[in-house]
Amino acid sequence: MTAVLAELPSPSNIRINSVNMGLVLEWDAPQNHTENITYRAEYRSLVSSYLVVCWNTTAQSCDFTSHLNQYGVYNFQVRAERKGDTSHWMVTKQFVMDKHTTLGPPGVTLVSRGADIEVSIKDPVLRISEFKDIYSHATFNITYWKEGQEEKAKRTNDTQLRKVVLALEPWTRYCVQVWAYTLRFSKHSQPSNVTCESTGKGNDRPWVVALVMAVAVALLALAFWYCYWVVHFLRPKDKLPEHFTELLLDPLCSSILAMQSSPQPEKVYHKVSIMPGGAET
Q1: Start and end of every Fibronectin type-III domain (predicted)?
Q2: Which domain holds residue 158?
């Protein structure tokens, strides 16, 4: 009587874990067959045959990232092996890297600027490419709320800016969360961590104050320059008629004119009469 050996079962629950263009194939061991089992994992593209990446390994995963292209289309397969026996291959569905990979969260940094909070956003970091090279038309959705009042959150949608200033209430703590969205394949990233920051005093914007002061000084200097020339025109050495002065004199320059119109030294006059001379008779 001849004994029939049972076929080595295949790995189960084969799955692809791909985040930010990294790709790891994972699987579970055959049920009730865990001793002395190793695995062989391979991949192929649309233009190549299967290429082995992991073999004779006891791990239940295989990292294919360094072998792949960001625009590639791939199939993956894995089988169990033991002492010359092999299981059937377990093959994945077709996987398109830039379409099917999961986008990780963007980076978020908050800086309080008075009653405003500046939100700085960094692209998700991809493992085999730059984010902006593949998803060049990405936008960001920003959700923010007062700490403890997430149910009243507000949202700004589809901004392409990496720095956004939120005008908020002073002396209040706010929390912010950001998602990336790409027009390519209409993909949403994972949300960023919730980041919180407190606002300060309202209207506390040093650069605005400095700008206003600079403009005010420039306008004041221009006004004085204008008045200086007006005064010199209206107060020549030879005095102009009074009605002409009043007509042309700008009220803005009256203070400067008053400064230049200091009292003149009092002049003393002696009356001199000239009488026609007559002959004595």
Answers
A1: 10-100
A2: 107-198
